[in-house]
């Protein structure tokens, strides 16, 4: 399965920086869209400077900006807004992640863009949305998942403090993936109506939506809490257990898997344990913990695999790259980084891009892109004379 050419011919202007917007536009580039990072001539996308680095360029930046080009344009400089609007008139999608109101202050807000190009789609990613009492409030991923209820749902037990997630849930799932979904939907809708639209993607709301099933429980009069729900710690059959040297993820929710798991570890389990109260769950958990601690993680793996019981290792990140599943599925690939050498990339479930290119240096393609958008040599010279 490959969508490498699905968006061929779609022009995207990316005003975003850091993680959510660039991850979104990388997904669009992976599907064949022409993505141009519009960066000011000074800081640009300052994620380039985040350690650790490869050849002086952040590993994080290199991981989420493949397949794009970079144009240096300071939107506060004379003539820059007019130049940007000329490009917007020919573009299909603009992605931005400024605080709400900044686009209007720059003179390139939705009303101006829509008059310039009625078919244009503007995707605005923000922490709390383009309207409401928090439009001026700063925040980061941890704040967004805090307000969404996501943070409070993760811990070993209800009396423990919320656990820090290991990935940026609001940035990546709440902002980038919902944003990409909205852009694709808007492109389909434009084929029917001929009009683009302004997409208001709140990372807080995007994270909140991931809890839809738990909010369904809340509507039934049950107050969900961390460490006490079916899938966040209440059940011994669905948990993380230590071995002598690592951890196992046990997801034996269904009766057949629970019985198979117990058979594999040499324990006499019963179906009644699946629905047992908190006291039963604590007893079962303690028994399983004691058994699994008698062997190493890798000693357990072939035993458990032979019983088909929904149990897998909790791999450390460095182990993931070499795992046979990911190797067979070609999840990891490399691109030519020139002087940097091969650069490891992680493909998304959309498939491997057709011809992924090195993430761009700041302003690397300025003259090339301006020319493609119809600017004359004199106009390009005037727009680039300051940097």
Q: How would you describe this protein?
A:
With 387 residues, the protein is α/β, with parallel strands linked by helices. It folds into 2 domains: 11-210 and 330-384, 3-Layer(aba) Sandwich (Rossmann fold); 238-242 and 247-313, 2-Layer Sandwich (formyl-coa transferase, domain 3), CATH 3.30.1540.10. The protein is 37% helix and 15% strand. It is built from 16 helices and 13 strands. The strands form 4 sheets. Strands 5-2-1-6-7-8 form a 6-stranded parallel β-sheet, sandwiched between helices. Strands 9-10-11 form a 3-stranded antiparallel β-sheet, covered by helices on one side. The protein has a two-stranded antiparallel ribbon with strand order 3-4. β3 (53-54) and β4 (57-58) form a beta hairpin. α1 (20-30) packs across α7 (169-193) and α7 crosses α8. It is elongated and about 80 Å long. The relative contact order is 0.14. The model has no long low-confidence stretch (mean pLDDT 96).
